[in-house]
Write a structure and sequence with these properties.
Elements lengths: L2 E4 L6 E6 L3 E6 L8 H10 L3 H13 L3 H18 L6 H16 L20 H21 L7 H13 L3 H14 L4 H13 L3 H14 L7 H11 L3 H14 L4 H14 L7 H21 L4 H14 L2 H14 L3 H18 L2 H14 L4 H13 L3 H12 L8 H12 L7 H30 L6 H7 L2 H11 L4 H17 L5 H13 L3 H17 L5 H17 L3 H14 L4 H13 L3 H14 L4 H13 L3 H14 L5 H16 L6 H24 L4 H12 L16 H23 L3 H13 L3 H15 L5 H18 L2 H17 L4 H19 L8 H22 L10 H16 L1 H93 L19 H11 L3 H6 L37 H7 L1
Antiparallel strand pairs: 1-2, 2-3
Length: 1088
């Protein structure tokens, strides 16, 4: 029994031998879809396992998966019947792979409540995977029982594929690694490992493996080019990824993954704002076609269904979109796809109005991925629809807060908007915290948008999100509303942005212009505010009846800016026009009354306020202004009665009325001059009630700066102590208590200054510093109040400055400070020429200035200042005389004291001439001393100059002498140089002659016995060495030398001197020479 697979021509076949004689050939290219006949042949021929698997594989390859499974089961039956189950593991592996193939087309779950994509009589993936695992385990047991060993490449690969399909990544990696350890080029194992690495986001390593698979098998299915493109896309090589997918589509035109990926790439490209509108439309259309082809090729693909669902959702085809969303949910094999399917189903149902079902899908999506931005936003929208604002805030908070906070501008803006609006059950303090969080969220969102804009300017692709959120008009208006009580600058910026967007849409909202005008008005930019108010009125008038309600407040604001600009006529016309339209508009009447009061027309102003009160008696703002009017008009009794009536009959918790009552009580008690015990008790009780009013106001409004300032004044002046009629303390304790009270009040005023930008705060701080004798800091506070808030025209502040400089001058004995005090008093008199108290103060300062200078020593004053002070003191005398003789019934000073000051001035001025004479004498002496000192200094200067000149002259002479000596030394050195040069020339001449003589001598000594000619030399000294040489020469005669046998020996060196041609006695003698075989250099040296 044998079977062979043969190939005939281009076809393929299997030969099955039956009974040893008959051979049946099965053509693999023309298989019958019904395998029953083939199964009978295979069973009868008892074929080997390889034939069963080959035939089943062919059926599977042709799409007959059920037939392949039937063949595999028949193979198991046949092997069991033949008792050859030990060879069945490949069949079980085949069955496992078939189950995995079934699972790829099976749903992950079945929606029991699906509306469009209803599935019946289908098995979920898990069942197939479970059966695949069972087949693999059965195959391993069969191999173990047959003694063939457990494992093998096929078993490992099948097990790895099953584990990969069930997301057991670690186990699958071990299975594939086991195969690759034996066969490093196994394509299936390489693909499996690459997929695992991709899932773990190890894109470079996965890319390398996909490329290796492509090199090993360019026609591999599944195409590794898909994986290559996915890795490149994840590594941000988008163009290369697209090229890989396009190549995959060229190689496999019917392969749906490449079509799907290219479709998604085209859809993403259509969102690029850098492309033209036509290019974007073409890219979108091409992407749509690719996705449709991919879905038609594999309608069980959750990824293709998900992508196509989004397209139908955008078109508004909700029914088809819902079907595709349900298909995505049922066939999704990853959490991401499952979440996307639930979200798209929720969006479809949300758009259709099925909020309950949409909420269910949103809940499922957020349960699976709580940090999914779209899911959290959709869930929050459902909660808002169900009026569950707190739940919506919680949902968005979870999205934006750690761990893993999401960077979603839409969620930030949405959460900020939810926090910005009040909710039932939220206290005022909690709401303030919510508004602060809303401001922070808006800031984060705007900062994120700015970062996106900067990235766009640096070459990145612009994001559509940033553009449409930046263009959200309502967001900027909401930001302005949040900051209007915290920062006018931030409010202005937000409104400007909203106005810019409104103008860009060519639909400018008049309310925006009005609000911008109000901000400019508050900043003091009256011209800009006026232009904006007028423009808003024009825009409102163009809206017809809808703009009538807007124009009321705009016209009122315009009248206010006219009033603040000093254009009283225009303001009055605007108020009259407003009141003609709306006579009940009491705010306009209030402003008209204020204008009349400023013109000293108090009666007319009072009549207008009475009219307003008659129409709106319960208006607390109107009652507050009426209280202010009565106090300013110096009607303390009616003001007190009106305030108490407000507290009693209208609102006992009205903060303004409580502060006004406290102020009235305080001033009434402060001005009380009744020294009787009853009067003192009434005064103390008035101060106490004033403090109680302020304290109650602070309980109702802890941030009320006016109430805090009232309590600070009470503290500073010790109104509840000795100042208020309490028991007096000992003399030593009173200054300390005054200092302590002033210090406590200063602490309060410092806090008030942070919230109340008013000159009264700095004025009160100056009072406290004055009470503590800190005159410099008091002057600083008064100056700030006068310059910053009152433009130097507030008489009270100027008099406080005069008083402080006067006290400083008295303390420091400073005439300059006293002059400054006089200057401020004169400024106050210029503003109020009829105020006699100021005249008295001027006279006092002038007299005190003269008294101060009289008390100073002549060295600390000048004649000019003294003359000016005496002149001013004379003017003070005339003022005191005039004030003392004033016949008015009530004067703000004591006539007796004025007369006493006049008399004191007369006695003081009598010593004026004496002080002048003393000062003149002192200054004359000082001038004489100064002149003498100048003369001495001049003489000393001339003397020093003469000494310096003599020193310079001496230096010059020494320099000349030194130069002469150096000249002579140079001349002598030159002379010595010339002499040395001459001697050197003579020596060279002698050496040259001596060298010439030596050459001549050597030329004549050819034979050893030849005698040279004698040469006489006159003069010269004899040295000891010469005598020794002569003696040595006489030891041997010429005969002895000649008689010796000739033999070769090293010649001795001998020094020959010219001096030797004369003996010691000076007689001539014959000089002998010994011939030498070699003349050494020493001879030359000695000769030279």
């Amino acid at each position: 029994m044998s079977e062979d697979v043969t190939y005939v021509g281009s076809g393929r076949s299997i030969d099955i031998e039956l009974g040893g004689q008959e051979v049946i050939t099965i053509d693999l290219d023309n298989l019958d879809p019904n395998p029953e006949d083939v199964l009978d042949l295979l069973k009868e021929g008892q074929c080997r396992v390889s034939v069963w698997t080959k035939l089943a594989g062919e059926y599977w390859r042709r799409g007959y998966l059920a037939a392949a499974e039937r063949i595999a089961h028949s193979a198991i039956e046949s092997l069991q019947a033949n008792g050859t189950t030990a060879s069945s593991p490949p069949i079980y592996a085949l069955l496992a792979n078939i189950q995995i193939a079934h699972a790829q087309k099976a749903p992950k779950l079945v929606l029991s409540e699906a509306r469009e994509d209803k599935l019946t009589n289908v098995r979920p993936k898990e069942e197939y995977y479970r059966e695949a695992a069972q087949y693999l385990n059965t195959g391993e047991r069969a191999a173990a029982e047959g003694g063939e060993g457990v494992g093998g490449t096929l078993a490992f690969l099948t097990r790895g594929i099953q584990q990969l399909a069930t997301r057991s990544m670690d186990d699958a990696m071990r299975s594939f690694e086991g195969v690759l350890a034996e066969k490093p080029t196994n394509v299936v194992a390489l693909l499996g490992k690459a997929r695992i690495l991709y899932a773990r986001r190890s894109y470079p390593q996965a890319l390398k493996l996909f490329q290796q698979v492509l090199q090993l098998n360019p026609h591999c299915i599944p195409d590794p080019r898909i994986g290559i493109g996915l890795c490149l896309w994840a590594m941000d090589y988008k163009s290369k990824a697209k090229a890989a997918w396009q190549r995959s589509l060229e190689v496999n035109p019917t392969d749906w993954p490449a079509q799907l990926l290219l479709g998604l790439e085209s859809i993403n490209a259509s969102k690029t704002e850098n492309l033209s509108e036509q290019d974007r439309a073409q890219a979108f259309l091409a992407g749509t076609k690719f996705i449709e082809k991919a879905f038609n090729a594999n309608q069980k693909s959750a990824a293709a269904a998900n992508a196509l669902c989004e397209l139908f959702l955008r078109k508004g085809s909700y029914k088809r979109a819902l079907k595709l969303a349900e298909r995505t949910i049922q066939f999704a094999d990853t959490l991401t796809l499952l979440t996307e399917g639930n979200l798209r189903a929720a969006r479809v149902l949300h758009a259709e109005g099925s909020l309950k079902e949409a909420t269910k899908y949103y809940t499922t999506a957020t349960d699976g991925q709580p940090k999914h931005v779209l899911g959290a936003i959709g869930m929050a929208q459902m909660q808002i629809q169900n009026d569950e604002i707190a739940a919506a805030i919680h949902t968005l908070d979870l999205l934006l807060q750690p761990p893993n906070p999401q960077r979603s501008v839409e969620a930030m803006v949405m959460l900020a908007s939810l926090r910005a609006h009040p909710r039932p059950g939220v206290s005022s303090s909690d709401y303030a915290q919510e508004k602060a969080k809303a401001r922070e969220l808006f800031d984060r969102a705007i900062k994120t948008l700015e970062q996106d804009d900067s990235r766009t300017s640096n070459g990145h692709i612009p994001q559509h999100t940033a553009s449409y959120i930046n263009d959200d008009l309502d967001m900027h208006i909401e930001i302005a509303r949040l900051w209007q009580e915290e920062s006018l600058d931030r409010t202005t910026r937000a409104l400007k942005e909203a106005l810019r967007l409104s103008e860009a849409n060519e639909q400018v909202d008049p309310r925006l212009l009005n609000n911008m005008g109000a901000l400019q008005h508050m900043e003091g930019n009256l011209a800009e505010a006026r232009a904006l108010y007028e423009e808003s009125l024009t825009k409102a008038a163009s809206l017809g009846p809808d703009g009538e309600g807007m124009s009321t407040s705009m016209l009122y604001n315009l009248a206010r800016v006219y009033e603040d600009s000093g254009d009283i006529t225009m303001a009055k016309e605007a108020y009259d026009k407003l009141l003609a339209r709306h006579p009940e508009y009491v705010d306009a009447k209030v402003r008209q009354a204020q204008m009349l009061a400023d013109l000293n027309q108090s009666n007319e102003a009072h009549d207008l306020l009475k009219q307003a009160m008659a129409s709106q008696n319960n208006n607390l703002n109107l009652r507050a202004f009426y209280t202010y009017f009565l106090i300013q008009s110096n009607f303390p009794k009616p003001a007190k009665d009106f305030v108490f009536a407000t507290l009693k009959d209208h609102d006992k918790h009205d903060v303004y009325s409580l502060c006004a009552a406290g102020w009235i009580q305080y001033h009434q008690s402060r001005e009380s001059r009744d020294p009787s015990p009853k009067g003192l008790e009434e005064r103390r009780r008035g101060f106490q009630r004033s403090a109680e009013f302020y304290d109650k106001a602070l309980l109702l409004d802890p941030l009320c700066a006016f109430a805090a300032q009232g309590l600070a004044i009470v503290t500073a002046e010790d109104a509840l102590g000795s100042f208020g009629g309490g028991p007096a303390t000992s003399g030593g304790d009173d200054p300390q208590k005054r200092m302590r009270n002033a210090r406590d009040a200063l602490d309060i005023f410092a806090k008030i200054r942070e919230s109340l930008n008013d000159g009264s705060v700095y004025l009160n701080m100056g009072h406290c510093y004055y009470a503590r004798d800190e005159f410099d800091r008091a002057i600083e506070s008064y100056e700030t109040a006068s310059v910053r808030f009152y433009s130097g025209h507030n008489v009270s502040v100027l008099l406080c400055l005069c008083r402080t400089w006067y006290a400083k001058a008295s303390k420091d004995q400073s005439f300059v400070a006293m002059s400054t005090a006089l200057k401020y008093a004169q400024k106050a008199l210029h503003l109020q020429p009829s105020d006699k108290a100021i005249l008295y103060n001027i006279a006092m300062v002038q007299q005190k200035a003269a008294e101060l200078l009289f008390g100073l020593s002549p060295s600390k004053r000048t004649l000019k200042d003294l003359e000016w002070a005496i002149l001013q003191a004379g003017h003070a005398q005339r003022l005191f005389a005039s004030l003392a003789a004033d016949s008015g019934s009530v004067v703000p000073y004591s006539r007796d004291i004025a007369d006493q000051r006049r008399k004191y001035g007369e006695s003081m001025l009598r010593r004026g001439d004496e002080h002048l004479a003393t000062q003149k004498e002192f200054e004359a002496e000082a001038q004489a001393k100064l002149v003498a000192a100048r003369l001495r200094r001049q003489m000393e200067k001339e003397k020093l100059e003469a000494i310096e000149q003599e020193r310079v002259e001496e230096h010059r002479r020494q320099a000349e002498k030194l130069a002469e000596e150096r000249r002579k030394a140079r001349e002598q050195a030159q002379e010595w140089t010339r002499e040395v040069q001459m001697e050197s020339d003579e020596e060279r001449e002698r050496k040259s002659k001596r060298a010439a003589r030596k050459v001549k001598v050597e030329g004549e000594s050819g034979d050893e016995g030849a005698e040279p000619k004698k040469k006489k030399r006159s003069g010269g000294k004899l040295k000891k060495a010469i005598d020794q040489d002569v003696d040595n020469e006489q030891l041997f005669s010429d005969d002895e030398v000649d008689s010796k046998p000739a033999k070769k020996r090293v010649p001795k060196k001998r020094v020959v001197r010219d001096d030797e041609d004369q003996d010691a006695v000076g007689g001539p003698r014959k000089k002998q020479y010994k011939s030498k075989e070699i003349l050494s250099d020493t001879d030359d040296e000695e000769m030279s």
